[in-house]
């Protein structure tokens, strides 16, 4: 293979992922101009983190489900149910807020095990199982709440989604701690990227040129530190951002460095080959849905803390936002393809679009139309790429 053809193959292979980043920057720049800079103001960036963190949490779990070739339509209802259980225990029963958090996550785990049993061991398609779950758990939410809303949560519970860490290291007019945490994250990402590049070189895989690699790292570092600077000049580091950051690093490690992660990709990429290779497909599928239930419980806590209560209608359409984040971020409809970073960028695209349109006063119905078109185009692009790859072979 010549150097030119190798570079062409590398560009083709990474076209979609690179396109997502370009699209994200373009969308941010567009709405920054249209809103006269309000989109990138410290207060608004903080609000984006607080308002859309639970969608990103759900997208992490949905990514694993989609990579394995499944779908989960029930997560919005599970968010509502877990928040309702927490509200009943903490608000009605007067139990400590930690009990409510543990109960919500525990209910999420049970729901995930329920779905995993029917999908993995009974063999019912996940679409049907989770569609039934969407109805079942929404009904249970109404039963738990008695068709009423419960509020307010104690202040400690609310801090899960609305609290901040600031002032630990001081700073002349800004929060130094936020900048330090961001810098540590940038260094960690850079170290991981360098290790990954060296590993690909060792296995004689194609990599981008060193100047391009350095520019990419510098661009990411600049964006992260600029974002941190804006947060530091507002209220400091949101607690929910710390939770989300830990989850992102954990799931990036799971998908890239663990046997379980490789088995998920194997199942979604070629189920028959995975079975012949000794992958315990049933158990992998089971734990994928248990994980999705657990993250739905975490999202339920964050959302209920953010809204300071539990409502029967909570979590409506959350599953579609999480699915859209994964597909826009590069996950393949047929499974076997997708990254944590891509899903997070996809989720941020949806968040920036929603926030930007709200700042512009665009009607909610138009917002839904725009988001639907973006999702359709993302999936169409995936189908187009697959057809081109098939024709090339």
Written overview of the protein:
Helices cover 77% and strands 1% of the residues. The longest helix is centred in the last third of the chain and has 29 residues, at 364-392. α3 (42-67) crosses α9, α3 (42-67) crosses α15 (340-359) and α14 (318-328) crosses α15. It has helices at residues 3-13, 15-34, 42-67, 75-92, 97-122, 126-145, 155-162, 176-202, 210-232, 239-257, 259-269, 271-276, 281-307, 318-328, 340-359, 364-392; strands at residues 164-165, 237-238. It has a two-stranded antiparallel sheet with strand order 1-2. The radius of gyration is 21 Å and the shape is globular. The protein is mostly helical and 393 residues long. The chain is built from 16 helices and 2 strands. It has a single domain, classed as ABC transporter involved in vitamin B12 uptake, BtuC, CATH 1.10.3470. The chain crosses the membrane at residues 20-41, 48-67, 73-91, 98-118, 124-146, 167-191, 211-229, 236-254, 286-305, 326-353. It is found in: Cell membrane. One of its GO terms (molecular function) is transmembrane transporter activity.
């Amino acid at each position: 293979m010549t150097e030119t053809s190798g570079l062409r193959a590398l560009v083709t292979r990474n076209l979609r992922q690179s396109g997502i980043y370009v699209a994200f920057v373009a969308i941010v720049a567009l709405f920054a101009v249209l809103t006269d800079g309000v989109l990138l103001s410290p207060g608004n960036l903080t609000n984006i983190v607080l308002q859309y963190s639970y969608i990103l949490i759900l997208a992490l779990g949905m990514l694993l489900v989609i990579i394995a070739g499944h779908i989960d339509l029930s997560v919005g209802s599970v968010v509502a149910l877990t928040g309702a259980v927490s509200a009943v225990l903490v608000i009605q029963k007067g139990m400590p807020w930690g009990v409510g958090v543990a109960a919500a996550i525990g209910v999420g785990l049970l729901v995930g095990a329920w779905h995993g049993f029917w999908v993995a061991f009974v063999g019912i398609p996940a679409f049907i199982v989770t569609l039934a779950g969407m109805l079942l758990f929404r009904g249970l939410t109404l039963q738990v709440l008695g068709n009423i809303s419960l509020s307010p949560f104690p202040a400690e519970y609310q801090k899960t989604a609305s609290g901040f860490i600031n002032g630990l290291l001081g700073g002349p007019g800004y929060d130094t701690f936020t900048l330090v945490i961001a810098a540590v994250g940038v260094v960690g990402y850079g170290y991981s990227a360098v290790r990954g590049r060296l590993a690909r070189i060792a296995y004689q895989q194609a990599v981008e040129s060193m100047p391009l690699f350095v520019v990419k790292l510098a661009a990411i570092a600049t964006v992260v530190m600029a974002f941190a600077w804006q947060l530091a000049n507002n209220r400091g580091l949101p607690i929910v951002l710390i939770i989300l950051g830990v989850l992102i690093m954990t799931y990036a490690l799971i998908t890239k460095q663990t046997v379980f992660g490789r088995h998920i990709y194997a199942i979604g990429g070629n189920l028959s080959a995975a079975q012949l290779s000794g992958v315990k497909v049933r158990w992998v599928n089971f734990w994928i849905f248990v994980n999705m239930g657990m993250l739905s419980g975490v999202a339920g806590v964050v959302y209920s803390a953010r809204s300071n209560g539990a409502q029967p209608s909570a979590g409506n359409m959350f599953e579609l936002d999480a699915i859209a984040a994964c597909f826009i971020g590069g996950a393949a409809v047929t499974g076997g393809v997708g990254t944590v970073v891509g899903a997070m960028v996809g989720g941020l695209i949806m968040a920036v679009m929603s926030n930007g349109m709200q700042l512009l006063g665009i009607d909610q119905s138009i917002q839904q139309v725009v988001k639907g078109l973006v999702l359709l185009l993302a999936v169409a692009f995936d189908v187009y790429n697959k057809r081109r790859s098939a024709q090339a072979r």
